[in-house]
């Protein structure tokens, strides 16, 4: 059973008048107030240093958040037989413990959904109960967080001083955008499993997201960790009132390595359930992914070979969760040619 540790979302009417520091005082994770006049600059810095940050004053309606999380809790509280009717995840639908098709497993169950309601994938997923209400809430929530993702991308463009400012966000707004949405449930795990494993139980293994940008929210249960540049893992305090933003692989490429796709994972909790909701903002399948020419400085060389999102998506599905998917597309430095002895002798 999904057990909530506090009310879904408290009244957030106070947010508009709150002042926030630029970082979380305990972790140093950047906290960006989207109403701050300096938000553009702060977002760029966060993308460069962490590839990850929290946003407040995000504009997503409280009611939209609460209602969908309530429906997610209702779904994950169903019997296993009922939940299995919405699966298997191939790739969309209900999944349990198995993550992808390459042997990765975790202490998690999830619903992976397309954000395009016209695709047959979504129509084939059987959600028990009031499915019309469920899909209506999903569409409402996705629309709101898509707007948030686009706002962040437009602030990135403004911060980088590239034109037009929708050069990134237009990929998510495109009617053929290949975005998706995932609802995760990490059940409490028996302490016996922790004793047997002798370490923290992995809810969702370390990985980067292949898309452009991800928008994450969870209930008030911890578990999310991000990898810092030195390889250490930093626990992210949960905040059900805010959203967390991930830089994804495609944005790393388009920034020519200025931003780094954040490696992250989730640890399971022995006492409390964790429910998270993630919007993965993806471009159309035919979109060419390459460093933005409007961003490249004179003489700057591209670090990546161009690819389409379709090509990258297919290659990503063939890898394990923790693999460096971008390695296949990195331009390798050309070795210096060996000197010709004859010409060297002349030069001397």
Report on this model:
The protein is α+β, with helices and mostly antiparallel strands. It has one domain (12-317): Jelly Rolls. 28% of the residues lie in helices and 21% in strands. It has 10 helices and 14 strands. It has helices spanning 39-49, 62-76, 80-84, 120-123, 131-160, 169-173, 191-197, 249-254, 309-317, 341-347; strands at residues 31-33, 52-56, 93-99, 104-114, 180-186, 202-207, 213-218, 224-227, 233-235, 243-247, 264-267, 274-281, 288-289, 307-308. The strands form 3 sheets. Strands 1-2-10-7-12-5-4-3 form an 8-stranded mixed beta sheet. It has a 4-stranded antiparallel beta sheet with strand order 6-11-8-9, with no helix packed on it. Strand 8 and strand 9 (233-235) form a beta hairpin. Helix 1 packs across helix 5 (131-160) and helix 2 crosses helix 5 (131-160). The N and C termini lie far apart (80 Å). Residues 3-20 and 341-348 have low confidence and may be disordered. Residues 329-348 are annotated as: Disordered. Belongs to the iron/ascorbate-dependent oxidoreductase family. GA2OX subfamily. Its EC number is 1.14.11.13.
Layout of SSEs?
Layout lengths: L30 E3 L5 H11 L2 E5 L5 H15 L3 H5 L8 E7 L4 E11 L5 H4 L7 H30 L8 H5 L6 E7 L4 H7 L4 E6 L5 E6 L5 E4 L5 E3 L7 E5 L1 H6 L9 E4 L6 E8 L6 E2 L17 E2 H9 L23 H7 L1
Parallel strand pairs: 1-2
Antiparallel strand pairs: 2-10, 3-4, 4-5, 5-12, 6-11, 7-10, 7-12, 8-9, 8-11, 13-14
Helix pairs in contact: 1-5, 2-5
